[in-house]
Amino acid sequence: MTSDRFQPPTARNRNLSVKRLWVFSLAIACSSPLLVAPIAYGQDNATVPAVKPAAEGQADLDEAIVKRIGADTPQALEAVSALLESAIKKGLDEENQAFAKKMLGSVLLQRAESLIATFPQAADQRGGLSSRQIAIRSETLEILARAVENDPELVEGFLLIARLHLMPGGEREEIKKATTSAIGLLDDEPKEQSSAYVLRALTNETDEGKLADLDAALKADPDNKEAIQMRASIRLDAGDIEGAIGDLEKVLVEDPTNTAFAGSVIQKLVDRDRVAEARELVTKMLAAKPSEGMYRMRAILHREEGQLDEAMADLDKAIAMAPKDPMTLLQRSGLALERDDLRSAKADFRAAIQVMPLIAEADEGIELRMQIAIAEKRNADAINDAKLLVDRAPDSTFRKLRLATLYTIDERPRKAIEVLTDILAGDPENVGVLRTRGDALLSVGDHKAAIADYESAIAAIGNLDPQEASKRDIDEASGLYNNLAWVLATSPNDDIRNGARALELAEKSAELTNHEAPHILSTLAAAYAEQGDYENARKWSGKAVELAADQEHNQLEQLEEELEKYKQNEPWREKQETEENAIPILDPEDLIDT
Asked: How far apart, in whole angstroms, are the C-alpha atoms of residue 22 and residue 68?
């Protein structure tokens, strides 16, 4: 595979080559002592001044100069370089020694370039560098080392060395040495010096070093897009969002067709919860040049922010620009589903399949078909599609968790437990999966096993600092504390209940939710009741009922029943034993199409 950094000779290189040929031609005319010795008109041969004997290597140099003209095959170039090396070894006067070394550097560079020209033909089908390409690179690097040794000002040689070492198996330190030499030689050519700074930035192991080189590159050439893109990515990774956005705007607004780069940096902004900045950047790109791809991207960002109407408007524009784009149709179908517009979702899904039938069996198509089945409460169909997606990505925890959730919705908790146990075999400290399996075990009445999962999950969380933790972590912890406290306070099994531990956990959960969640206050009341403190049980249970009524909570009726128990100074006892759904789930191929 050839690097995209190898380009045809630039105008600068061509001009240098013309200058070298002119110098070599001039040298032919001037190299003979007889031609350069002045003879006055009428002067007798006896009076001609003595000519200094030629240096031992002069003959080889003269022959090399003659052969250099028109030497453009590898064999001819090798012959010239051999003559030059011989001349230098035998000895030349100071001026011709310097000239021969310059000429040798030029010839060796041309030999290296002719070798590199064979690089694409030496590739094989396995990917990476072939053994032949590795051999070509090694030979080229050896030739270039001799070239820059003879001509330390041969900037093209240093740059080619750096680019060869950028390939797999290259040496970082050699890139740094070569680019540093090139940078020092390019003060009068800022654009090429800027490119050399970018090459050197790739060798720096620290962000500070990379940024220093990229800043220098942009000082030399403020329009170097590669330098701007690299600096933007480093600034994003370092958390300098404002600096990165300044760079991104310069690149993407001037070149809004650069969607691959746009997609990667926008994803980085989203990962850092800077969705608004990402959306503003896409908006500026759209103002510079509208495209269906950027409308799709902005729709995703609107959707991320919960702006479903704005997202739909962008997808409508994208479809207006490309009416038969299947991915846009799928995206709009999913958005319609999220807006509870099942009819439009199904219409766009059918349209996408009509445009591209294969999409029905692509992951994106199966995913959407599953979501439509869930919306229509066709649990068996949804489970079949979820299983298919798991089969395609057996290591995907997300897909397995979704399958387990669908089993739970379809009242198949034991099936869910099987899937969750499989996940935990490879990831035993996954807090979310431990909690989910604990809930499933609780639903089938296995309190002891549920408590073990909850305790393992709490141990994995460790000491949670509410001031430092994210909302997601706080929600996860409060849910765990609450569920474990509930079973410890309400289990009908005497050897399971632990009122003191239940109260400790319930208070933690209530504090994390600011005493505003009815179901968590219900658990706090149950823990007090288990301790025999019915006054506090009635207090918190009454508060739970009051909040549930205000929120139109779906557990209001049960919460009222719990309060009645505490008014009678009786604890609450609960044991769920969900019966497994016995209706078989048929595979799609087993169904009769009517």
From this structure: 11
- Residues 293, 295, 299, 305: what is their CA dihedral angle, to the nearest 10 degrees? 110
The 8-class DSSP code of residue 255 comes to -
Q: Which residue has the tokens 């009524």?
A: 549
For residue 465, report the phi and psi dihedrals to the nearest 5 degrees: -100, 110
229-232 LR contacts (CB < 8 Å, sep 24+): 229/261, 230/198, 230/201, 232/265
Residue 41 confidence (pLDDT): 35
DSSP 168-208: TT--HHHHHHHHHHHHHH-TT-HHHHHHHHHHHHTT-SSHH
For residue 523 the two structure tokens come to: 């658990």
- Round the average pLDDT of the chain to a whole number and report it: 87
How buried is residue 312: exposed, middle or buried, by Cβ count under 10 Å (0-12/13-18/19+)? buried
pLDDT one-digit tens code per residue, 103-127? 999 999 999 999 989 888 888 777 7
Q: Helices (H), strands (E): how many in the chain? A: 29, 0
The structural domains of the chain, with segments of one domain joined by +, span 1-38+51-170
The model's pLDDT over 327-336, given as tens digits with 9 standing for 90+, comes to: 999 999 999 9
217 alpha carbon, distance to own chain's centre: 24
Residue 242: its H or E element: helix 241-254
The gap from C-alpha 337 to its chain's centroid, in whole angstroms, comes to: 29
Residues sharing a CB contact under 8 Å with residue 373, sequence separation 6 or more, in sequence order: 379, 381, 382, 385
User: What pLDDT, on the 0 to 100 scale, is given for residue 563?
Assistant: 96
Instruction: Return d(Cα 291, Cα 359) in angstroms, integer.
Output: 23
The C-alpha angle with vertex 415 and arms to 410 and 417, in degrees rounded to 5, equals 115
Q: How far apart are alpha carbons 188 and 198 in whole angstroms?
A: 17
**pLDDT tier at 37, thresholds 50, 70, 90:** very low
Give the whole-angstrom CA distance, residue 101 versus residue 539: 96
At 35 the three-state DSSP class reads: helix
